[in-house]
Amino acid sequence: MASEPLSENGHPARDLAARWGGYLAHDRRRSPHTVRAYVATAHRFIDFLGRYRGEEIGRFGLLSMHAADLRAFLADRRGEGLGASSAAREMSAVRAFLTYAAEQADSPAQLPRTRAPKRPRTLPRPASPDDAMALAKEAGDGAANDWLGARDMAILLLLYGAGLRVAEAMSLTAKCLPLGQAIRVTGKRAKTRIVPIVPAVKQAIEDYVALCPYPISGDSPLFVGAKGGPLNPDLVRRAVSGARHRLGLPDSLTPHALRHSFATHLLARGADLRSLQELLGHASLSSTQIYTDVDAARLLDVYRHAHPRA
């Protein structure tokens, strides 16, 4: 076999992992967070193979994987304390990287079969409508000034009232103004969807825009930071954490839990799964079906607390 061309850092496998990151970002339109996580996994896998086989792993070495290699890597990661769900995601990233390596070498991907850890089926914990509204109001009241408080309250009401992810709310621009009965949201993998806006959410956003001291127009972000630039999502999470602590609400009530609550409450009021899938922007209906379990769990909890023989 011909020798492999060296990358700038003298390691062709690492160079391949870097190019894979570019492919994920530009061709597959994966989020920056996903790209960082996947590329980091690829580098961990390359490091592990070097230790496990006692030799430097190049591009061609990635084409000769055995099931024992993957099982050993998985055992090594589990030994470091990685949970079942994270280990399953790690194995998925490794398989995607090996497939890319084969494609780059014009070789058919022949991945050995190995069973990934079974992921525990976890159920989102929805907040009650009263808790969701109280959280949004408390976050607004706890802000440094009125316009920041109006902004934080508008964001949290948007997450709960429209089922948006935090990143989706942050990606909204002034082009959605003036607000109508719905907005166009860009979700994962640049997919867009139309989401209805209830009057309370519309009013909260309009109140924030009226108070904001910075111009919100054109392609500028709808939600801006204290200095007028794009808002850091971590600030939203901190506002929720502070409000949650002051109200004595559980740690499970995160910004993303507001999206779960939106879905659970719609299902409880009669929304069908297909419509809920469209509203949430799920690529697969199986991602939405978990909410049927959530609603069943809520009903069972009500029954156990209310029935004299439960």
Name of the CATH first level of the largest domain: Mainly Alpha
| Major beta sheet, strand line-up | 1-2
Mean pLDDT, as a whole number?
80
Shape: elongated
Task: From the structure above, extract its key features.
single chain, 310 residues, mainly alpha, DNA polymerase, domain 1, hpI Integrase, Chain A, 2 domains, two-stranded antiparallel ribbon, 57% helix, 3% strand, disordered N terminus
Any overview of this molecule?
The protein is built from 13 helices and two strands, in the order αααααααββαααααα. The protein is mainly alpha-helical.
Explain briefly what this protein structure is.
57% of the residues lie in helices and 3% in strands. The protein is mainly α.
List the helices and strands and how they pair.
Blueprint: H1 12-26, H2 32-53, H3 67-79, H4 84-104, H5 129-141, H6 146-162, H7 166-171, E1 182-186, E2 192-196, H8 199-211, H9 233-247, H10 255-268, H11 273-280, H12 285-288, H13 290-306
Antiparallel strand pairs: 1-2
